[in-house]
């Protein structure tokens, strides 16, 4: 990603380009409906021309799943690491390849209908925003953004630019979460009182110091472009392509990685908004006798966060969701048999008349005790998505072809934005546990964020009773990079 020119003339030129291209792109979308020939062929207006940004790993699977739906052409590939892009380049040999998403959008905007963003978390928002400003449909891998401010800006931009959006939490389109909704709507478990979500993540290093020695940047990797909006730091081994998740500059920890898959079921089933308050405890690393390690650059090895949500029609009063990661799990439900699996990743709903649970992505929904699943029969109320989890990708393609507002999606930014905000509010509590204040005695430190409940002001995007964590609501981008708002 070539650093942006800083003179006002370049800025004005870019703004003019975006405006003119958006107008041109709107006209370009109107394609004559002619038959290409033979059964099974689709007119150009019934196909979506897609560009992928970040096309290795999850980006590779995202593009493959979108292509398998049969109505999308993968025409452009963009990645800062040629090694990671190699499989996608092989899979889509006709696609034009770029390293800098800005260059790709500048040169190819008129030829692109939708953009799939599958980069590390810290660059999601600015890529998605640039695409939306050009009137492009966007599919953004979870979590939607790295910061709360970014998530709110993307949500508002989706409505402002009237573009089709979807976040990559594919379980939101699965049958499982819809079965849970049917049970809840039919009152099978009564009013929900408490929800527990847990994961075995992190499965990457966390709770560690930033390495003191770096390494040689691989020739295939453009390190400056990979850093993007993040602070300028020397390259270190094993950060790319996976372990960045455990560092606050790039990732959002276990809850950012898995919360969109595990908190989504209660969020959608119960009709929740962002929490009113959060509190947490985190696992500790001791580096010597009675000496706790303080590693503010890295997410902790484990955490337990309690988020409070206002009452809805389906809850008994205000609701608490307990998030647990690092292998921490809630007490085993007494209704579950001794040899019946509780799962390494799961969600448990506790209601006034019973309990229900599911695995990651909302899969394998079941009532407790398991014998109830043979006894309870409810009417299917929630409409299923064709293709289920795989249909999450195809739904986005269909909606983008149909046009803004024509097809209801499972995780548009109106839903994905508040869900992402919720997870990042939880991260404020987690990061708050590392805030140090020098003791009045002049010897040692206090940690005032470890034993309090953070009160959240949704309107103004700030914690009202512990200002020290508000610095993480909106981070400073590296010079030369911008969200574009």
Automatic annotation (TrEMBL):
Tell me which InterPro entries the record gives.
Answer: Gfo/Idh/MocA-like_OxRdtase_N, Gfo/Idh/MocA_oxidrdct_glycsds, Gfo/Idh/MocA_OxRdtase_bact_C, NAD(P)-bd_dom_sf, TAT_signal_bac_arc
Q: Which domain of life is it from?
A: Bacteria
- Can you name one GO molecular function term for this protein? nucleotide binding
Coiled coil feature spans = none
Return the Pfam families for the record: GFO_IDH_MocA (PF01408), GFO_IDH_MocA_C2 (PF19051)
Please list the residue ranges annotated as the Gfo/Idh/MocA-like oxidoreductase bacterial type C-terminal domain: 216-279
**Which parts of the sequence belong to the Gfo/Idh/MocA-like oxidoreductase N-terminal domain?**
50-168
What the entry lists under NCBIfam families is as follows: TAT_signal_seq
Recorded protein name is Oxidoreductase
Q: What is the lineage of its organism?
A: Bacteria, Pseudomonadati, Bacteroidota, Sphingobacteriia, Sphingobacteriales
């Amino acid at each position: 990603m070539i650093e942006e020119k800083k003179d006002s003339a370049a800025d004005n030129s870019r703004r003019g380009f975006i405006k003119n291209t958006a107008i041109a792109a709107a006209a370009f979308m109107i394609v004559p409906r002619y038959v290409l020939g033979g059964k099974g062929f689709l007119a150009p207006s019934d196909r979506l021309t897609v560009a992928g940004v970040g096309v290795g790993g999850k980006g590779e699977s995202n593009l493959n799943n979108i292509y398998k739906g049969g109505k999308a052409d993968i025409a452009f590939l963009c990645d800062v690491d040629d090694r990671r892009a190699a499989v996608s380049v092989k899979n889509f040999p006709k696609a034009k390849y770029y390293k800098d998403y800005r260059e790709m959008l500048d040169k190819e905007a008129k030829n692109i209908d939708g953009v799939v963003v599958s980069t590390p978390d810290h660059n999601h928002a600015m890529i998605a925003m640039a695409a939306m400003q050009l009137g492009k449909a966007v599919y953004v891998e979870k979590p939607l953004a790295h910061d709360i401010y970014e998530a709110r800006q993307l949500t508002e931009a989706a409505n402002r630019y009237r573009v089709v959006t979807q976040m990559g939490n594919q379980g939101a389109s699965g049958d499982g979460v819809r079965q849970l909704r049917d049970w809840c709507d039919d009152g099978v478990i009564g009013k929900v009182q408490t929800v527990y979500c847990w994961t075995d993540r992190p499965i990457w290093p966390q709770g560690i110091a930033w390495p003191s020695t770096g390494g040689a940047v691989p020739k295939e990797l453009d390190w400056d472009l990979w850093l993007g909006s993040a602070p300028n730091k020397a390259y270190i081994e094993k950060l790319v392509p996976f372990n960045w998740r455990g560092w606050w500059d790039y990732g959002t920890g276990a809850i950012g990685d898995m919360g969109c898959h595990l908190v989504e079921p209660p969020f959608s089933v119960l009709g929740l908004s962002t929490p009113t308050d959060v509190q947490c405890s985190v696992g500790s690393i001791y580096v010597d006798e009675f000496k706790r390690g303080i590693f503010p650059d890295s997410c902790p090895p484990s955490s337990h966060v309690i988020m409070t949500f206002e009452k809805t029609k389906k809850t008994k009063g205000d609701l608490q969701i307990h998030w647990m990661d690092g292998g921490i799990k809630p007490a085993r439900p007494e209704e579950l048999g001794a040899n019946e699996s509780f799962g390494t990743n799961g969600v448990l709903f506790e209601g006034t008349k019973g309990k229900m649970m599911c695995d990651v992505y909302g899969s394998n929904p079941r009532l407790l005790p398991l014998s109830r699943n043979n006894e309870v029969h409810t009417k299917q109320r929630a409409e299923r998505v064709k293709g289920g989890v795989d249909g999450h990708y195809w739904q986005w393609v269909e909606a983008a072809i149909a046009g803004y507002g024509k097809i209801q999606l499972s995780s548009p930014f109106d839903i994905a934005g508040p869900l992402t905000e919720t997870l990042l509010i939880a991260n404020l509590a987690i990061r708050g546990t590392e805030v140090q204040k020098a003791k009045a005695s002049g010897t040692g430190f206090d940690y005032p964020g470890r034993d309090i409940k953070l009160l959240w002001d949704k309107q103004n995007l700030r914690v009202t009773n512990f200002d020290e964590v508000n610095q993480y609501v909106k981070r400073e981008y590296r010079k030369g990079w911008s969200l574009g708002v």
